[in-house]
Amino acid sequence: MVRDMTSGSIPRHLIAYSVPLVLGSLFQLTYNAVDSMIVGRFIGKEALAAVGTCSPVMNIIILGISGICIGASVLMSNFFGARQMEQLKRELATTAVFGVYFSAAVAALGMLAAGGLLRALYVPMEVLPIAAAYLRIIFLGAPFTFFYNAVSSALKSVGDSKTPLKFLAFCSVLNGLMDIILIGGLGFGIICSAATTVIAEALSAILCIVYVYRRIPELQLSPAEFRIDGGLLKQTLQYGGVTALQQSCQPIGKLLIQGAVNPLGVDVMAAFNAVTRVDDYAFTPEQSIAAGITTFVAQNSGAKKEERIRSGFRAGLLLEFLYWMVICAAAFCLREPIMRLFVTGADAGVVEVGSRYLGIMAFFYILPASTNGMQGYFRGRKNMKLTLLGTFIQTSLRVIFVYLLTPRYGIVGIPFACAIGWTVMLLVEIPCYFWI
After folding, report:
1. CB within 10 Å: which end of the chain, N or C, has fewer?
2. Are 92 and 219 in contact (CB under 8 A)?
3. What is the enclosing helix (H) or strand (E) of 290?
4. 231: three-class secondary structure by DSSP
5. What is the pTM of this model?
6. C-alpha 360: how far from its chain's center?
7. 3-state secondary structure of 227
8. Are 116 and 133 in contact (CB under 8 A)?
9. Euclidean distance between CA atoms 368 and 286, whole angstroms
């Protein structure tokens, strides 16, 4: 359903737009966690460690692609708010055609570089072969990831946040069922886990495209319209390229952090994979609320409604705070039962290490809630350079302090390193907000 956020109740628009994104994120994260549980319980902790060490690389692909699509979405939201429907279609066509070439290049380069990249991360030899095989198959899914994100961003730009997430939820359930049957029931290995993930990505993209051509005339393109507009491509890469760099900073930082975790042993690697799944329950929904702020701000910027933008931003920050209260209580109170879901009783060391991490990190989740809200506002204002600067500062400090703290304190040094990075990021962004 198309949603015009330039008029009507601000809280109602933000809640109606953001809540489906948050619920969809939680659903997807639940699938990811279940996938890790299936891998850890039915294949072994080495496979769990392999998937964990591949996760930062996978996130670089996903967030790099989604960064470009977010940049395109900001432009499309502006055009929709200003009622420039022809420009909206041109932007969608430009993004789609560019995506064909871009995602194919990502898939090809990733297939070639997978093994060398994992060796550079000091992945232990008992994990390296299965991790490399898993990662190569994931790279093959890059084109499907791009097209799902592109069409999903187009739908969100016109206020429809529910539909793409319904399709993603359906495909995640299908993916989970395939994993349970093929891995848990029939005993297939880690290659099967990667293949089912790619199949789910492809189906999500196809369903979104079919829906657009049946229900959303504002986004329907004829064959003749599939061409690149040079001016719009330049703007898309200007905003999307900076956003892709900003989005990629986090997984690049996590990749470097993984390099500090890997020498600590397989138990710590497995624990870190498990706790980062829990971290995602904080970060990803907070980013979903920020996406609602971005769309709201972008549409109202196109309509030139400044006071409405400020009111919407305040409402968005309140939603971020309320979500933090929920996830903090859940992560802190249930930290040990959560960790036991990922491993068998024989791996008590993994549970103990992960529980100590979550007991500290739960209280720090308020910081990314605040930084994500700020980032959502700046993206909606097309101020992508400031979002990149803030993320670069945060990521750099986090990585530096991880390498300083983990040799002495182990995995529990990571939450404090993250908190330092988020705090400095806020000290930069809050004055910039008032100055701008």
Report:
1. C
2. yes
3. helix 266-302
4. helix
5. 0.68
6. 23
7. coil
8. no
9. 7
Domain boundaries, the chain: 10-435
Tokens 């900073």 correspond to 249
Token code pair at residue 361: 């990190």
Contact 345/273 with Cβ under 8 angstroms? no
CB–CB of 262/54 below 8 Å? no
216, two tokens: 């959303």
Determine the Cα–Cα distance for residues 153 and 160; give it in Å rounded to an integer: 9
As given in the structure block, the two tokens for residue 328 are 């903090």
For 145-173, what is each residue's pLDDT tens digit? Answer: 888 888 988 888 887 877 887 887 787 78
pLDDT of 260-276, one tens digit each?
777 777 777 777 877 88
Closest C-alpha among 212, 147, 155, 174 to residue 21: 155
Comparing C-alpha atoms, which of 196, 145, 137, 142 is closest to residue 171?
Answer: 196
- Position 387 pLDDT exceeds 70: yes
pLDDT for the residue 42: 62
Distance CA 247, CA 60 (A): 8
Amino acid at 95: T
**How many CA atoms are closer than 13 Å to the CA of 281, on its beta-carbon side?**
22
Q: Do 152 and 164 form a contact (C-beta atoms < 8 A)?
A: yes
**Cα dihedral across residues 368, 374, 379, 382: positive or negative:** negative
Between vectors from CA 71 to CA 256 and to CA 74, what angle results, nearest 5°? 140
